Amino acid sequence: MRRSLIFEYQDGSYFIEEQGKHVFSINEQDLKFDAFRFYEGIYAGEGKSTSIELVDSIAEANKTGKYIFSWISEIVTAIHSAFPNEVDEDDLDIPKNTEIKQVPHKIIPLFDFAACAGDGFYIDENILHEDYSTEMMEADYAVKISGHSMEPTIPDGAIVLVKRVEKLNHNDIGIFNVNGAAMCKRYIRKGRGVILAPDNENGEFNQVKISSLSTYAIQGKVIHY
Fold it and tell me: Using an 8 Å Cβ cutoff, are 59 and 46 in contact?
């Protein structure tokens, strides 16, 4: 019988839950994996199936949690492949107190798209924002995109990571201030001029010529989406 286990995060601990009961956990501070506790929680007991569906309920922003989930999923899959019905403790060959290598990360501000409007936008903790964890050390801030102009490349509601830059190269995607409004567009050099172009080709969104703007500023380069 296939078992459904849920991988969650709460109060500084990553844990696996089965039928409402915590069966295994990893502390966020040391990220140590105890193989014996893993066996006791997941596999100990007569007739426990190794056929497991591990469900990820960690938020996308929790990059470390995503890494741990992927790592444990590989262990669960490997154990089921080797022991398709049930497993005994002596069968396992996972070193006790295996330490998960912590992925370097940084906390950056996550702004709503509207916060990027206005000529004076800069990274300021006084602007309403959330904390966002990322492994991309070069990112300066994150933005939650609002609108469909960059679909299918960047869908409405997607979170993009942005690096503060003064100049962009041809075909870069950037965050811009255009006449006081925030825009996410592709930076296209055309002849001697520059246009800000949407990726969405349904005809609803227009290209913008830089030369026609009264106010224009580069807020940053989108480096991940």
Answer: no
- The residue assigned the tokens 């370097």 is 104
CA distance linking residue 37 with residue 78, whole number of Å: 18
CA angle (49, 54, 55) in 5-degree steps? 145
Tokens describing residue 5: 């286990």
Give the largest CA-CA distance in the chain: 74
pLDDT in tens, 180-206: 888 899 999 988 899 999 999 988 888
Q: Which residues contact 174 (CB under 8 A, 6 or more apart)?
A: 168, 184, 185, 186, 187, 196, 218, 219, 220, 221, 222
Does the pTM exceed 0.70? no
Contact in structure between 42 and 49 (CB atoms under 8 Å): no
For 13-56, how does the pLDDT look when each residue is reduced to its tens digit (9 = 90+)? 999 999 989 999 998 888 888 888 999 999 988 778 999 999 99
CA 70 – CA 199 distance, rounded (Å) = 32
In this structure, how many other beta carbons lie within 10 angstroms of the beta carbon of residue 73? 14
- The β-bridge partners of 25 are 15
Strand duo 130-134 + 106-112: pairing: antiparallel
Provide the 8-state DSSP code for 102.
P
Q: What are phi and psi of 216, to 5 degrees?
A: -150, 130
